[in-house]
Amino acid sequence: MYLLFDCNNFFASCEQVFRPDWRHRPLVVLSNNDGCVVSRSQEAKQMGIAMGEPYFKCRERLEQAGGIACSANFALYSNLSDRIMQILEESLPELHQYSIDEAFAIVSQRSHCDWLDECRKIRHKIRRWTGITVSVGLAPTKTLAKLANELAKKKPEYKGVLHLPADCDSVLRRTPIEDIWGVGRRLAPRMHGLGIRTAAGLAAASLDWLRQRFGVHGERLALELRGVSCLEDEPVNTRSQVMVSRSLKEGIEDETRLREALCGFVEKAARILRSEALMASQVYVVLRTSRYAENSQLYAAQQGCLLPHPTDDTRLFVKAATELLKALYRPGYPYRKIGVLLADLQETDSVQPTFDHPQVAPNPLMQVLDKLQREGHQVHFANKATEPLWRCSQASPCYTTRWADIPEAW
DNA sequence: TCTGGGGTCCTAGGACCC
DNA sequence: TCTGGGGTCCTAGGACCC
User: Fold this and answer.
1) Please, which of A104, A200, A234, A395 could form a disulfide with A71 given CB 3.0 to 4.6 Å?
2) Average pLDDT over residues A254-258
3) Within 10 A of A207 (CB to CB), how many other CB atoms are there?
4) Which nucleotide is nearest to A191 (CA to C1')?
5) Percent of chain A with pLDDT strictly greater than 90
């Protein structure tokens, strides 16, 4: 059986933990550049503010309702996430974190009633210890556990915990197809067109027919809904790419300013790479104007290159990225997004030496640089932009990760 | 005026191999 | 005139997720 723990309104809830005066009010957390709504309190949801909605479209409504908007504060969210995951790990035999705010546990042996009871206790503990409310779904497959979790969140009568057995046809009949995990904005209309409107309809469809039209993905969806588990248990533990990119607050045409922004992103990406003891042998640069620009002002391009050998040296990445930007850059466009992707990652330990590069080891200069930065020293490559080029107007303090920001109680 | 960032997996098609 | 069969690897693009 799978147990899925998922935090309610996670980013919004994190903000409310340290601001009791923000509870029971419409609150939204904004994406980078204060562009889109990425998390909403219950009250904001009730106002009809949609997930992913551009902030400028709901700003006035929110302000009129006395609501609050915060810029995303990932230092805070990651830290609270770590605390919650730690509680789960201590309480459960096999846990796989799936995202910043959810984790699957795989359990067996005891009855689902025992586990329901256990989940209620864990839920209570997380609430007491972190201030965050989680919902729990229990089911024989991950897809059903997702559905159980959604229902546990929405329907107060379940009090945050729900078990769905393999034969839950009556529930599936009431579940629209677009509410199923793995059915997105493309698949849903296609399925509707073929007469599949509910989860029950999908579960009942012929596997061969689904395979033909939707590939292995469609077949797996149906099996999972029937209670036959067919998704991977083991998450891929080493990532395959590191990306750092931002939308810029204003269109930038100047190549030098773009390069400075890019170099800052390369530096950050390389630091992430080293913090996970990885090396990369491919570098990509992406550059684009606003997606919403008129055709004559629209430009989007991406180009990559292969490095002579896997490395974790920021200087080599900067050199490659700078050359790629030179190749991609076309004058006359107001660029709104730039970023770097490090790919073809390998664990430093398992990189093969070659005749040209017999010594594979973390770059010592980079190690020193990382150490200095960890200690709070400001040491950077001189080609990096010094002013942030994106907006982040109203981030909350880092209550749990920065000494100066620790809240006072009196 | 204003529209995020960072991932994964699958598939089809091309290049190449014996 | 007639031109196989069975593979692997890589990449781009499309779909999904939070």
Assistant:
1) A395
2) 94
3) 13
4) C15
5) 76
Write down which residues 201-260 in A have CB closer than 7 A to strand B: 215-217, 232, 236, 239-247
Question: What does the pLDDT average to over A146-175?
Answer: 96
Measured CA to CA, the distance from residue A370 to residue A387 in angstroms comes to 21
- For the record, the structure tokens of A285 come out as 């640069």
Q: Is the CB of A334 under 7 A from strand B?
A: no
Rg, chain A, Cα only: 24
Determine the distance between A232 (CA) and C5 (C1') in angstroms: 33
CB of A36 within 7 Å of some strand B atom: yes
- The count of other CB atoms within 10 Å of the CB of residue A324 is 22
Q: Which of A82, A116, A112, A117 is nearest to A100 (CA)?
A: A82
What's the CA gap between A104 and A5, in Å, rounded? Answer: 6
Q: Are residues A173 and A292 in the same domain?
A: no
Helix (H) / strand (E) containing A303: strand A300-311
Residue type, A254: D
Owning domain of residue A216: 77-225
Are the beta carbons of A274 and A348 closer than 8 angstroms?
no
**Whole-number Å distance, CA A339 to C1' C2?**
55
As a whole number, the mean pLDDT across chain A is: 92
User: A179 with A187: CB under 8 angstroms?
Assistant: no
Residue A68 shares a structural domain with residue A95 = no
Query: pLDDT, tens digit, for every residue of A289-323?
Result: 988 888 778 888 888 888 888 999 999 999 999 99
Claim to verify: residue A69 and residue A90 sit in the same structural domain: no
CATH code, domain with A256: 3.30.1490.100
Long-range CB contacts for residues A250-253, cutoff 8 Å, separation at least 24: A250/A334, A251/A289, A251/A290, A251/A333, A251/A334, A251/A335, A251/A336, A252/A334, A252/A335, A252/A336, A252/A389, A253/A331, A253/A332, A253/A333, A253/A334, A253/A335
Q: A303: which nucleotide lies closest, measuring CA to C1'?
A: C12
Spacing of C-alpha A180 from chain mean position = 19
Residue with tokens 């609150």: A27
